[in-house]
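QA checklist item 7 of 12: single-chain prediction sanity check.
[x] sequence parsed
[x] length recorded as 126
[x] structure emitted
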Amino acid sequence: MIARIPVAHLHGGEVTEGAFDEAIRHSITKMSHLHFTATEEYRRRVIQLGENPARVFNVGGLGIDNIKRLYSTEFQDKLKSVKNPYGEGGAAEKIKKNLKETDLSNILKKQFYDIEKHQFSDRITG
């Protein structure tokens, strides 16, 4: 957005009940052009905020990648038996894959709701 550089939002759609930063999180979502969420629920929440579904990707939690890198094979084997809502890891690779597959030529075009016309319209941001 600033200097016409697309913004990617990591871990969007998450909520901290009663936290003072909820408005800041919401504005980061609105400023971002690409969204990488940790769960399908969070992906739906970002889309519900009006973001284009084609630019919202459920890639899983980035922390899972760190756990797999840091801990022993024995610990990782124990983790395999646990159902993790944040995915199975590989979020960084999924983000890179989605970035490569996303057409960035039109990325600065976002939809905004025009109150007077009661419809969505595309506008260039940045």
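[x] summary fact logged: The first strand starts at residue 8 and ends at 10.
[ ] second reviewer sign-off
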